[in-house]
Amino acid sequence: MNKYEIIIYWSESDKLFLAEVPELPGCMADGHSYQEAVSNAEIIINEWIETAKELGREIPKPKGKLMYA
């Protein structure tokens, strides 16, 4: 289980739920249901981390709840 924050919202233009992982640049998934978007995000998070390791890039540590103004 990953500890990265996932922001989920409905996209009217895509007619899908979108799941963004703000701490991992470019990490995003979608799904026809809220649950599917979360499940797909978990897969994408793992793939993002694996790719970063292969490329020797730094993997951000989860910070927990992000603060928004």
UniProtKB/TrEMBL annotation:
Gene3D superfamilies: 3.30.160.250. It comes from the Bacteria. Transmembrane segments: none annotated. Residues 4-63 form the HicB-like antitoxin of toxin-antitoxin system domain. It holds the Pfam family HicB_lk_antitox. This is HicB-like antitoxin of toxin-antitoxin system domain-containing protein.
